[in-house]
Structures are given as C-alpha cells and as structure tokens.
Amino acid sequence: MDYSEFEAFLEQVRSTHPFWFDGFEGWRATEEEIADIEANFRVVLPVSYRHFMATVGGGGFGFLDIFPLGPRQGSVEDFQSVNSERWWDVDFVAFSPVGTGDLWGFMVENGACLDRVTFLDHETGEVMPENQEFLEFLVSKALKP
Q: Over the Cα atoms of the chain, what is R_g?
C-alpha cells in the first residue's frame, strides 16, 4: 500500500467513524526530530513510518496508540523513552504498546528498520513477525474494529 492509498482510506474512515478519532492528539514530528531519533538510535526508520509521523503523528490513533517520537505533554510514553530503556535483546525499535506490556515495532538489520511490523513479547523477549508493512498494519489494527 502506498501512502496516497493509505490517506484515501484514512479519510474514508474518518468521515464514516469520526468518533474513533475523538481526542486523537496528532503529535506530529518535525523532520529535525525524525533525524535526531535516527541519529540517536543509529537506525534508519521506514519511509512510510517517517511520513506518517510527520503528517499524522503519534497518540491514540483509532484502535492503537502510536508513541510520539519525543516527550509530549499528556503522553505517558514516547518512542525515545521506551527505546532508551530497552529490556529486550533483539535489534528492535518499538512504535506502539500492545497494552499488556508487549510492543509493536520494527526489526533492525544493518542499521535500517525493516518495514514489516513485529510483535515483541515482554515475558519471553521473543519476536513474532506480523507479516504486514507499517501502513497495512495500521489499516488492519487501528482502522478496523
């Protein structure tokens, strides 16, 4: 799914289910903030994720929470704090809590985040691929009940 297809789907969902987005914070990231995160964590974030964070942003998004990149007033967790206090041993960066202590995120290979979402089990430290690219994941998990 390309970003224009995602935007069209998002607009359709927003028009038919506006209450799913009531209270959505929309903490957008600047290009500078994205570059700082990449430099500090020595990763290259997926293009689709970068674009989403710059145009839509973090917060409660449909049926998911997406970590804002840095601290925001009203946010309990953010990308920077969660990924700085790592308790897992795999090359993984988290972008969303599951709500049970587990995390959704990206595996990292050779300094680049794969654009495939992965589930990280907080009890075992195991990772399980979701087999969806970031935008497909958002459509299936955040924008469909």
A: 14
